[in-house]
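Mods, move this if it's the wrong board.
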Amino acid sequence: MISLLTPLCAYSQSDNFSLESKPVWEAGIGGGYINSVDYPGSKDPNIAQFALPFFIYRTEIFRVGEGGVGAVAVEEPRLKLDVSFGGALNAEPEPDSVRTGLPDLDFLFEFGPRLQIKLFEKQWDTESQSRLDWDSKVRAVIGTDFKSAKARGFVFSTGLAYRQRAIAGNKIDFIVNADITFADQRYNDYLYTVLPEFVTPQRASYKANPGYVESRVFLGLAIRPIPSLRIFTGMALFSYANSANESSPLFETDTSTQYALGFAWIPLRSKKTIKVFSSE
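Not the wrong board. C-alpha cells:
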C-alpha cells in the first residue's frame, strides 16, 4: 500500500493537541522504496522506487501536499476532521501465479473523511513528547490505468496511532500504528472474485464477500539528521486470517511483512508561519 510510507506512556492531563508553527509553504524533493505485495492475501511481491518534487501549502482550512489536497472541516484541541488519502500500486500477474490470465490490477487511489481523537498526550521535557490518537477513515476507491477510471467501492479502517518524539536527542521519532480494515462488495469483488470466463482447473469460480480485509501493525522511525532533511523507515506486519474472502482461490496467505524507506528534502520554506494542530 502507498500508505505504508505515511503513523506507551503515562496519561497526560493536557487538554491540547500540539499546537505548532509551520511554514505557510514548503518545497523540495521526496522519494522512497516500497516492498509490499499486490493485494491483501497475495504472495506476489510488489516493489517500487520513486523520486518526485513536492509542494506543501497551508491555510487554516485548505491544505495542499500533506498527503494530498483537502480541507480541514474541524480542528479542535482534542479532535480533528479532515480529508485523508491512500492507495495501492498497480500490479501485473507473476508467471504461474494464482492471477495468471486475469486482468492487471490498476492503481488504486483512496480519498475520504478522517476523524482523529486524541486519547492522551504527555510532555516529558522540552523536546520529548508522547501522544496516542484514535484514527478512523472512510475512503472511496478509484481504480485507473491512466486511460480510464472506475469506482472500486469503499474501505473503512480504524485503530490507534502512537508517536514518541525525540527518543534520541531531538533527531529521532518513534511511530506505532495498529489498525483494522473492512471493505464493501465492490472493493472485494475487484480483488477476490473469479468470474466464470477466468475459471481454470486450478482456479475455481468465486464470488467475493464484503467485510473484513486485514489487520496491521506498523513500526517506524522518522529521522532528522539536519533541519531540511527527513528520513522515514518502517516495517508493517499484516494479518489476513479470518478474512471475509480467505476461501477465494486468489487468497494465498494469512500474513505478510512489508517494508518502506523514504526521504523528504525541504530546502525552501516561507518565513511566514501558521499555527496548526499537529497530526503527526
